[in-house]
């Protein structure tokens, strides 16, 4: 079985977002940084009130701090994901901001394993090295060992049959 498709930077970004939302380490880091930002934004108005007006307006500073902290806590996820997207695009484009990233890809199931081609690079992964297959929003993410994987974007014809055939070839099914 063979699938051929074009892999775009949006597919790569969707994979990373999916991975970040499922990774316990990334979820913990996100929760901690969101809380830290809220605490920092709480103390800013309080420090400004104490520094410039003395203790006269400390209550106003605390109220403003609570409001700003709640606002920062609510807005932080949008800021976080935009920063992740920006950094991923920068990495994919080699630091150039105007060049979109797009590669021809193919993935096939052979006797010796899964063959994945991205541009001119080919990798062969034995079926025993496949750790997880995630289907999310029509896309398929195949995790191979710890730092390698394959992305099949949403909308590729034959994806369901491919996933079924791949699952049948995994060692846990024999």
Describe the structure concisely:
The protein has 174 residues and is α+β, with helices and mostly antiparallel strands. Helices cover 52% and strands 26% of the residues. The chain folds into two domains: 2-8 and 99-173, PH-domain like (Roll), CATH 2.30.29; 9-92, no CATH class.
Structure description:
The protein is an alpha+beta fold and 174 residues long. The chain is built from four helices and seven strands; from the N terminus they run E-H-H-H-E-E-E-E-E-E-H. The chain folds into two domains: 2-8 and 99-173, PH-domain like (Roll); 9-92, no CATH class. It has helices at 9-22, 24-53, 58-92, 159-169; strands at residues 2-8, 102-110, 113-118, 121-125, 130-136, 139-144, 148-152. The strands form two sheets. Strands 1-2-3-4 form a four-stranded antiparallel sheet. A three-stranded antiparallel sheet has the order 5-6-7, sandwiched between helices. A hairpin with a 2-residue loop joins strand 5 and strand 6. The longest helix is centred in the middle third of the chain and has 35 residues, at 58-92. It is elongated, with a radius of gyration of 23 Å.
